[in-house]
Design brief:
The complex is a heterodimer. By secondary structure, chain A is of the alpha+beta class. Chain A has a single domain (49-362), classed as Cytochrome-c3 Hydrogenase, chain B (Orthogonal Bundle), CATH 1.10.645. Helix content of chain A is 47%, strand content 15%. In chain A, the strands form 4 sheets. In chain A, strands 1-2-3-4 form a 4-stranded antiparallel beta sheet. In chain A, strand 8 (308-316) and strand 9 form a beta hairpin. The longest helix of chain A has 29 residues, at 95-123. Chain A is globular, with a radius of gyration of 22 Å. Chain B has a single domain, classed as Rossmann fold, CATH 3.40.50.12280. In chain B, 40% of the residues lie in helices and 15% in strands. Chain B contains 5 helices and 5 strands; from the N terminus they run αβαββαβαβα. Chain B has a 5-stranded parallel beta sheet. In chain B, helix 3 (66-78) links the parallel strand 3 (57-61) and strand 4. In chain B, helix 2 crosses helix 5. The radius of gyration of chain B is 15 Å and the shape is globular. Classes of the chains: A alpha+beta, B alpha/beta. Chains A and B meet through helix 1 and helix 5 of A and strand 1, helix 2 and helix 3 of B.
Chain lengths: 398, 143
């Protein structure tokens, strides 16, 4: 306890192991009475050194490594990785492969949002909804298994195209599945919109203004829930998204209800995109050849993961291994926003507000200072980072 | 008589603690899927608990990172005896795809003893249930 004379501010550490989330994160709350004064998040418990490991593996091996940056958005990680390597090599994947990629990406978006809706219901203490949603999520998992052969890590996108084709029979099955899933989704929309117990917990909780969201560089559904229409699929279309009509789902209120509604609307949109893509899929090959050694080059690649913008930077050096791969994941971008959202609300609202950005921390632990000799760790502020930059460049140009 | 009751209830209703030691989430969602209606491991009396002090079985996913190592040992020490460890996934078994990463211990058994390994990346829910049933047999023999 760090007491001051007139107001008592308690420091409450939550985590890294805690019942609300399945992943390790330390949230350090400063609490005044029952109200959250300040929050500090320390996510780096899952730091495994993936970026360094990519430099020791070749482009094909790295597909499997990047897939395991995050298990829930494994599809988009392989896609953005392979898209980047294709750009490095100057290769264009065949049109059918682009459509196949879109289909499994949207299936993944549905599975991820359904998973989140269940977890959010669980955080609200509404376990009935949690179990219902997860039962219906298995429907999508079955379709993913039908298309890709795997439930979670699909290994579907490869450098130069897709690994498996979607047969007519599978397409029929997917359409039927989407039909059933839409009907189930109608039920959940009704529950979230009308159920008074749910509304009491989510309306006007964890509010974020559009200004603040843009200022803090929030991405994905967290940003769209404040009414800002920003989506990589629409703003910078990749794969076949420029040929597929879809709406960018937004909701104006910026509270937890908006977060839920945006994701529910996105599930409808994803189902529509899948139907359209299945109907308009061109015939032809699904894979092209890509050279093993890639000439020196530098590219970026990005895509809209279920949680927001996923960003990769690549540098090649003429060998079969990349010189540098930099990954920026959406949850890292959303952490400042969620720390802002938590301020001023009650302790009881921590789980649902924190869960509302759909935190996926396995991909977040990328930046930490650890001094092993002196056994201490610290975090830099933006100003300290800028000061370091000035020192560094001075040293470089001396 | 009293001891017989403890043994009986431990086998009929072991409570589990899920601990992520640096996993990529894939194993974690499969562990959660195992608890939900399609696979329903709760029919074995298993219940997910939040605190290690309530748990009989620790379900560990992920290749133990340097940051999480001390926490993992602490969680293990907080769990009351007799305790059992189920290592889910290739990472928890051998480090999996993260072998030779500088920040990874390559397996839970480098840090704490493991009773049952479930391989797979991620293992299918059926495989996890298989591992759980194996562990239940071990529980029966041990007590």
């Amino acid at each position: 306890m760090s007491g001051e004379s007139e107001k008592a501010v308690f420091e409450v550490p939550v985590g890294p192991q805690h019942p609300a989330l399945k992943e390790p994160i330390l949230l350090l709350f400063k609490i005044e009475g029952d109200i959250i004064d300040d929050v500090m998040a320390r996510p780096a418990y899952t730091h495994r050194g993936i970026e360094k490991a990519t430099e020791a593996r070749n482009y094909i091996q790295n597909i499997y490594l990047c897939e395991r940056v995050c298990g829930i958005c494994s599809g988009i990680h392989t896609l953005v990785y392979t898209q980047g390597v294709e750009r490095l090599a100057g290769v264009e994947p065949p049109p059918r492969a682009k459509y196949i990629r879109v289909i499994f990406l949207e299936l993944e978006r549905i599975h991820s949002h359904a998973l989140w809706l269940g977890v959010a219901a669980h955080e609200l203490g509404f376990d009935t909804l949690f179990y219902y949603v997860w039962r219906d999520r298995e429907l999508v998992m079955d379709l993913l298994e039908l298309v890709t052969g795997n439930r979670v890590n699909y290994a579907m996108s490869t450098v130069g195209g897709a690994r498996r084709d979607i047969s007519d029979e599978a397409a029929h099955q997917i359409k039927k599945g989407m039909e059933i899933f839409r009907r189930r989704l109608d039920v959940y929309t009704g529950v979230v919109e009308k159920d008074p117990t749910v509304r009491k917990r989510v309306v006007d909780v964890g509010k974020l203004s559009p200004h603040k969201a843009v200022e803090l560089c929030a991405v994905g559904p967290t940003l769209r829930a404040t009414g800002v229409k920003r989506d990589v699929r629409a703003d910078d279309p990749y794969q076949a998204y420029d040929e597929i009509p879809f709406n960018v789902a937004t909701y104006p209120t910026g509270d937890v209800l908006a977060q839920i509604m945006v994701r529910v609307m996105e599930m409808y949109e994803a189902a529509n995109i899948i139907d359209y893509a299945l109907d308009h899929m061109p015939k032809g090959p699904i894979r092209t050849k890509v050279p093993w050694n890639i000439a020196p080059n530098e590219v970026i690649s990005r895509g809209e993961a279920p949680r927001g913008e996923l960003f990769y930077y690549f540098k090649s050096n003429g060998t079969e291994k990349p010189e540098r791969v930099k990954i920026r994941t959406p949850t890292l971008a959303n952490l400042p926003a969620v720390c802002e959202m938590l301020k001023g609300y009650h302790i009881a609202e921590i789980p649902i507000v924190f869960a509302s950005i759909d935190p996926c921390l396995s991909c977040t632990g990328r930046f930490a200072f650890i001094d092993e000799r002196h056994d201490r760790s610290w975090v830099w502020t933006g100003e300290q980072l800028r000061a370091y930059r000035r020192r560094y460049y001075k040293w470089q140009n001396r | 008589m009293g001891l017989g009751l403890v043994k009986w209830s431990r086998i009929k209703s072991p409570w589990i603690l899920h601990f992520n030691s640096g996993a990529c989430n894939a194993c974690d969602i499969e562990v959660l899927a195992v608890l939900t209606p399609r696979f329903d491991v709760e029919r074995f009396g298993m219940l997910l608990k939040g605190s290690p002090r309530h748990a009989d079985i620790i379900v560990i996913t992920g290749s133990v990172t340097r940051q999480i190592r001390d926490r993992l040992v602490r969680i293990y020490e907080q769990t009351p005896e007799p305790k059992f460890v189920l290592a889910v996934g290739n990472c928890a078994g051998t480090g999996g795809v993260f072998q030779q990463c500088y920040n990874v211990y390559e397996g839970v058994d480098k840090v704490i003893p493991v009773d049952v390994y479930v391989p797979g990346c991620p293992p299918r829910p059926e495989a996890i249930i298989h591992g759980v049933v194996k562990l239940l047999q071990k529980l029966q023999e041990a007590s």
